[in-house]
Amino acid sequence: MPSQNHPTPRLTAPWGTPPSAGNELSRRSAFKLAMGAAGLAAAGTSATAAQSTKDPRKASPKRFGMKKSINQWAFPYPERMNLRECLQLAKDAGFDGIELNYDLENDLSPKHGPKEYQKIRKMADDIGIAISGVCSFLFWPYPLTSNDPAERARGMELAGLMTEAAHHLGTENLLVVPGAVHMPWREDHDPTPNDVCDQRARAAIGKLLPKAEKLKVHLNMENISSTATCSRRRR
């Protein structure tokens, strides 16, 4: 306990003003002030370090614009809407592109050629929507790996025509189903063994590639779940 001859020291404010009742600080207040200052200094250092640390999620300055496309199967075509109406509705709904479907009877089919496809391309351009790609359900009735040579041949013929259609429509994307081991929705389909399916698929795509490369069309392989493999055929 300090004696009466030695009063308790007082700390003045750090800016050097003379001591008075309003600016004198106790030891406890001075300690709190010092700790607060240290905390602010540490926070400032941490903030600076955080700013200098690169965010790995922003490592690349390159940005890729996301575009939305819709498949023509989303529209009641051709029963209730024609192709122009499909393109216009897709555009009005905010889509950047539309994937068109190749079949045996309608606007994209073996019945049509470069002249008709160029008109479709111009129509899409006038509407302001891109043709993002071509696809087809015809790979199911005419699989490239079928045990029936006639089905395989027809499938190859149609795949070649689809490649040409994609080229004349101004798209570089053709969706291709390279083969199927089993199709449960086809009662007449004879399942193809895995190894045979793989060999036939590779051979078929190999034959399609030269034309696709010449026309600058990508053959986009679609891996359809269990239709490409079937464990029952492995036994």
Instruction: Let me know the number of strands.
Output: 5
Number of H/I helices? 5
Q: What distance separates the N and C termini?
A: 95 Å
What is the name of the CATH architecture of the largest domain? Alpha-Beta Barrel
Structural domain count = 2
Under CATH at level 1, the class of the largest domain stands as Alpha Beta
- Listing every helix as H and every strand as E from the N terminus to the C terminus, the arrangement reads HEHEHEHEHE
SS-based structural class?
Answer: mainly alpha
Strand content: 5-15%
| Widest sheet: strand ordering | 1-2-3
Query: Which of globular, elongated, flat, extended, rod-shaped describes the shape?
Result: elongated
Largest sheet: 3 strands, parallel
Mean pLDDT: 84
Q: Which blocks of ≥5 consecutive residues have pLDDT under 50? A: 8-22, 231-235
**Helix fraction?**
25-40%
CATH fourth-tier homologous superfamily of the largest domain: Divalent-metal-dependent TIM barrel enzymes
Per the CATH scheme, the topology name of the largest domain is TIM Barrel
Radius of gyration: 36 Å
